[in-house]
Amino acid sequence: MGTTFGLGELGFLIQGLKWTVLLAAIAFVGGGIGGLGVALARVSTSKPLRRITGGYIALFQGTPLLMQLFVIYYGLGLMGLMLPAWVAVAIAFTLHASAFLGEIWRGAIEALPKGQFEAARALGLHYVPRMRDVILPQALRIALPATIGFLVQLIKGTSLAAIVGFIELARAGQIVSNQTYAPLLVFTVVGALYFALCWPLSLYGSRIEGRIARATAR
Amino acid sequence: MPSTATHTVDAPHAADAPLIVMEDVNKWYGAYHALRDVNLSVRRGEKIVLCGPSGSGKSTLIRCINHLETIKSGRITVDGVRLDDSTRSVDAVRSEVGMVFQNFNLFPHMTVLQNCTLAPMRVRGVTVAAAEATAKRFLERVRIAEHAHKYPAQLSGGQQQRVAIARALCMEPKVMLFDEPTSALDPEMVKEVLDTMVSLARDGMTMVCVTHEMGFARQVADRVIFMADGQILEQADPESFFRHPTHPRARSFLGEILAHH
Ligand SMILES: Nc1ncnc2c1ncn2[C@@H]1O[C@H](COP(=O)(O)OP(=O)(O)OP(=O)(O)O)[C@@H](O)[C@H]1O
Ligand SMILES: [Mg+2]
């Protein structure tokens, strides 16, 4: 019983898009907070802290996102935590994003000239103002293009959440395609929606990159 | 007053007690012995010029004073505060010691004014208004007040270094440490920075300056200290040091410096 691709179907895709955006947003905010913690731990003076977060990053960078989703989704279930699919998926994406953003930001912090840290210390600035006022604003600026690049990856990566039954944009596309028997049309629309989401971000990222390159060349 | 080689370490009345005392300080970088039994005491108001060949430990010495480097053995006391590795002593010392670096190290994402107000606000807890008033006073003093709202990258090297001096002064330190403040500058900008330092010296600031500007040393130093291989080999008032360096290493060092200038 096929239907034609109409407004109702488009609406369904837009619903999927909403979940995609929401999932990416949760992962990005959660990963932003987690990643900040990870980055600070990676550059801290505590060796155990550096080791643990180093292992965490290695684990999440060294395994496919799909595996991470599976393990966290089913793992939480096995541990008796019956969470709604979207919560489990949000947790998985947040952990994933924390690792990647943490590593990007660690690199940016370490790329700053040593003199910046020294000048802050010589002025008597404590850890919190030293990081908050001096180091992080500069590091995050350097890391902005890479951060945006990761956000784009993350948005596209949310399509993997379909595998555990979460109906985001890609999964919605699959459903509509099965109903309408018009896969080419449906997935063209799905692709266009992803593109409309990711391309402005990519563009913004490369703009900033150019601006930073010009500023440092000065 | 020029003083000569020997000095003793003691703690009499606070007012005439030395501001900085280093006793038998030893510093290692891994297997490298960077400071060897360094003894130095700096009186209030005294201006010291530290010189010596590259790698002799001049930067290391002054960086120990504000705990940018930790020492292996010995004692460092600044204004009566014994530097151990406790946060409390480090904080106490850093809030009294200003430092100016070779590469300025201004915060590039902040305006000149913000560079100057950050530490007083965050460390001393003064209000924005008070911090800005102080900052303007010191920016005036280094004759750069008109650039207060610019970013460091919009200024010349000499201007940036004067801002760095003002930034340190805003904490109203008891002593200023300078680590080759003019050696990253184009020649035509050296003078404006040296003039600023001379005027600071005239106002009675206690200063420890690593520099090879021998004209500056003659003009303001009470004592010139010569280092090599992590040791203080000679110290004397500038006249005696430049006229009759006693240590052979000091003689050959001066020969090279003068040949280059
Ligand atoms: N962080 C460090 N790790 C290892 N060795 C170091 C470090 N900093 C300095 N050294 C070494 O310690 C010695 C003294 O260095 P220092 O920077 O104090 O010399 P300096 O007298 O200031 O020389 P310059 O005139 O070149 O600035 C040098 O041999 C240097 O290579
Ligand atoms: Mg040096």
UniProtKB/TrEMBL annotation, chain A:
Similarity comment: Belongs to the binding-protein-dependent transport system permease family. HisMQ subfamily.
The ABC transmembrane type-1 domain, residue ranges: 17-205
Gene3D superfamilies: MetI-like (1.10.3720.10)
Single GO molecular function: transmembrane transporter activity
Stored Pfam families: BPD_transp_1 (PF00528)
Gene Ontology biological process terms in this record: amino acid transport
Membrane-crossing segments per the record: 20-41, 53-75, 81-101, 139-164, 184-204
GO cellular component: ATP-binding cassette (ABC) transporter complex
Cell compartment(s), UniProt: Cell inner membrane; Cell membrane
PROSITE patterns named among the record's database cross-references: ABC_TM1 (PS50928)
Keywords carried by this UniProt record: Cell membrane, Membrane, Transmembrane, Transmembrane helix, Transport
Coiled coil regions in record: none
Highest taxon above the source species: Bacteria
Primary residence: membrane
Name assigned to this protein: Amino acid ABC transporter permease
InterPro entries membership: AA_ABC_transptr_permease_3TM (IPR010065), ArtM/GltK/GlnP/TcyL/YhdX-like (IPR043429), MetI-like (IPR000515), MetI-like_sf (IPR035906)
Protein topology in the membrane: Multi-pass membrane protein
Organism lineage string: Bacteria, Pseudomonadati, Pseudomonadota, Alphaproteobacteria, Rhodospirillales
Automatic annotation (TrEMBL), chain B:
CDD domains in UniProt: ABC_HisP_GlnQ (cd03262)
Keyword Cell membrane carried by entry: no
Superkingdom classification of source: Bacteria
Sorted UniProt keywords: ATP-binding, Nucleotide-binding, Transport
UniProt cross-references to InterPro entries, sorted A to Z: AAA+_ATPase, ABC_ATPase_HisP-typ, ABC_transporter-like_ATP-bd, ABC_transporter-like_CS, MetN_ABC_transporter-like, P-loop_NTPase
Domain ABC transporter positions: 20-254
GO MF, any single term: ABC-type amino acid transporter activity
Gene3D superfamilies linked: P-loop containing nucleotide triphosphate hydrolases (3.40.50.300)
Pfam families documented for this protein: ABC_tran
Presence of keyword Transport: yes
Similarity-based family: Belongs to the ABC transporter superfamily.
Name of the protein in its database record: Amino acid ABC transporter ATP-binding protein
Naturally occurring in which organism (per UniProt): Azospirillum griseum
